[in-house]
Amino acid sequence: MSVRRLFVISILCLAILACNLTAPSTPAAPTAGETPVPLPTATSPAPAETTVPAAGRTFYVAPNGDNANPGTREQPWATPGYGSRQLAPGDTLIILGGRYTLREYDADILTPPSGTPAAWITIRGEEGHRPVLAGREDLLTAINLSGVQYVRVENLEITHDDTATGEAAWFREGVEILGAPSAHIVLKDLYIHHIDEFGINIQDVEDLQIINCRVEYCGFGALGGPAGEHGGWRDVTIRGCSLSWSGHYYQGGDGSNRPYDRPDGFGIEPSQGPILIEDTIAEHNYGDGLDSKAANTVIRRAVVANNACDGVKLWGPDSRIENTLIYGRGDGNPEPSPWAAIVIAPEEQANAHFEIINVTVDDALGRNYLMYVQYDHPDVPAHLTIRNTIFSGRGEESPIYVNAASTLIADHNLFYLPQNEVILTHGDTAYTCADIASLGPGNLCGDPRFVRPAWGEPGDYHLQAGSPAIDAGTANGAPTADLENRPRDAQPDIGAYEYPSATSRLFLPYVLRALAIAGGRSGGTAGQRATPDVLRACRIW
Are 497 and 463 in contact (CB under 8 A)? Predict the structure, then answer.
C-alpha cells in the first residue's frame, strides 16, 4: 500500500472520529495586540443582518471623481461628504479605494439622511480596497449620524491626515451621534485610529450594532459619550471588536499631553441598556478596559488585558460577566494605584443584582483590592453571585472586598493570593484559605497553574495539567461553552478556559483541509502538504 494511500486512510479515520465529537471548531482566543475574530456561539446566535432591498440605487465616489458627475461607476462623485447627502432610502454609496482628505466643516463630513425599515441607507467602502478618510484642520468628525435611523456604514478606515503637521493634523472624532437620538444603526468593519477625541462618540441611540471594528489610539477613548437625554445607550451589541490603546495618541503625539487622563476602551454614562459586549478585546487603555454604567450589561468571551486603571467596572443593575479573562492592571507600571481588576459599584441603586461566572482574574501589582463591591457605599446593598471563577492576586495586600450590606453567593471558585492571609472580607467577616470552604460549596485555594501569567505583555491563561481548577466547577448557571467556544462538560472547569480533554484536541476543519490537500489540490507530496494541518488537528495544549 502506498504511503499516500496510508496517509489518506489515516486522515479519513481522524475525520470520522472528529465528526463524532461534540466540540465545534474554534479559533484561538485573541492575544494582546491582535484584532479579535468573531467567535461562533452556541448559546446566542448572532441576529440576522438587515439587508437593503435591491430596488435601491447605487452611487460611487472616487478620488479622481467630480461632484458635478452623476455618481455612476464610470462618472463618480469626488467627495464622500457630498455623496452622502445625495442618498435616499434604499440607496447605497460605495466609496472606491483611495485616500480622501476631510477638512471642511461641514461639507466634508458624511451626513446621510434616514432610511426606512424596508429601505436602509448604506455607505460602504469598496470590497477589497478599503478607503481611507483622513481628517485634518481640527475637523469635528468624519461621520455624523445624529438624529438618523436605518443607516449602515461599513468597511472604512478613519484616521487623521498623517501628511499634515502641527495643528493642521488635528482631527477630533471618527463617528458621532450627539444631540438628536438615533436608532437602527450598524457600524461594521471600521478601522478608526489615531483620533484626538473619541473614536465613536454617542449620546443617545437605540438598536446599535458595532461589529468587527478596530477602534484604537483615540485620545478620549474608543467608545464613549456624554450623559444621555433619551435613555442613553439602548439595545446595543458590540461584537468582535478591539477597543484598545486609548490615550496613547493625541494631536500628533504619544498622548502624554492629552487633557483627559483616563480614557477607556469602553466607557458610557448611565443608560437603559441592554448592552452586550462579546468576542471583544480591550487592552492597553490608559483608563479602564470596559466601564459600563448601563443597566443590563453583559460582557462575555472578552479579553480585558493590561489596562492602566480598572479592568471591568459595572454600575448598572442586572449585569453579568462571563467567560472573560481580566489581567494586567497597571499595564506594567509598578506604582501603587487605587484601581482594581473588577469593580461592582451600583452606588445608591439599592438591591442591584450582578453575576460573575466562569471568569479568570489575575493581578500582579497588588496593594489594592483584587475586586471590590460597593466600597464607597457600605450601607447600600447589592446582590452578587460569583461562580466558577479564578481569582489570582499575585501581589501583596490584594484581598477581595464586599460591603456588609450586600449579599454574596460564592461557590466553586478558586482563590490564589499567595502573599495574602485574608482572601476575602464580607463586612466584618474575613476568610482565609483555612476556612474558605465555609464561604460556599466548592470554594478552594490553590495555584491555578496558568500556562504563562503576564503583566504589561500578552499572557496565556489556559490551564496546565494538574490545575486544581480542572473539573472543579459546577454546571449550575454556567455557560455551555468557554471563552474560545469550546464546549464545557457536565463537570466544567473553573475559569474562562476549559481544559481540553483528550477527545477535544481534534479540530474537524483542519482534518477536512488536510483531506482536501491530500486529494491533490496543490503541489508536493500528499504527506508534505498535509502534515502541518494534521499536527494542528491533533494539537495538544
Answer: yes
**What would the grid cell of residue 292 be?**
459600563
Beta strands in 396-487, from DSSP E residues, in sequence order: 400-402, 407-411, 414-416, 422-426, 429-432, 444-445, 450-452, 460-463
Q: What percent of the chain has pLDDT over 70?
A: 82
- Which residues lie across from 300 on neighbouring strands? 278, 322
Q: Please list, in sequence order, all residues whose beta carbon lies within 8 angstroms of the beta carbon of residue 366, skipping any fewer than 6 positions away.
A: 393, 394, 395, 396, 397, 398, 419
Q: Are 126 and 76 in contact (CB under 8 A)?
A: no
Averaged pLDDT, 227-255: 97
Cα–Cα distance for residue pair 356/321, rounded to 1 Å? 5
Q: Are 94 and 124 in contact (CB under 8 A)?
A: yes
Distance CA 317, CA 351 (A): 8
DSSP letters spanning 26-45 = -PPPPPTTSPPPPPP-SSSP
What pLDDT score does 263 carry? 98
For cell 483620533, the residue is 195
**Whether 517 contacts 527, CB under 8 Å:** no
Residue 347: count other Cβ atoms within 10 Å of its Cβ: 13
pLDDT tens column, 105-133: 999 999 999 999 999 999 999 999 999 99
Tell me the torsion sign for CA atoms 187, 328, 409, 374: negative
Give me the residue label for grid cell 443593575. Answer: 317
pLDDT at 407: 97
Dihedral sign (CA 222, 226, 230, 232): positive
Query: What cell does 354 get?
Result: 450582578
Q: What is the mean pLDDT of the chain?
A: 87
Distance of CA 23 to the CA centre of its chain: 23
| Residue 315: count of CB within 10 angstroms of its CB | 23
Q: Read off the pLDDT of each residue in 454-460 and give the average, rounded to a whole number.
A: 96
Number of residues assigned to the chain: 541
Q: Binning pLDDT at 50, 70 and 90, where does residue 185 land? A: very high
User: pLDDT tens for residues 294-348?
Assistant: 999 999 999 999 999 999 999 999 999 999 999 999 999 999 999 999 999 999 9
* DSSP states along 157-169: EEEE-TT--GGGG
CB 287 within 8 A of CB 309: yes
Cα dihedral across residues 74, 75, 79, 84: positive or negative:
negative
* Other C-beta atoms lying within 10 Å of the C-beta of residue 176: 23
Please give the single-letter amino acid code of residue 395: G
Residue 454 has which C-alpha cell? 503576564
> Does 527 have pLDDT greater than 50?
no
How far apart (Å, rounded) are the C-alpha atoms in residues 374 and 341? 14
Q: Which amino acid is at 299?
A: I
Check residue 480 and give left, alpha or beta (phi > 0: left; psi -120 to 50: alpha).
alpha
Instruction: State how far the Cα of 443 lies from the Cα of 431, in Å rounded to an integer.
Output: 11
Count CB-CB contacts under 10 A for residue 446.
14
The rounded percent of the chain whose pLDDT value lies above 90 is 82
Q: Which residues are CB-contacts of 473 (< 8 A; sequence separation ≥ 6)? A: 358, 387, 388, 412, 442, 488, 491, 492, 493, 494
Is 178 in contact with 152 (CB distance < 8 Å)? Answer: no
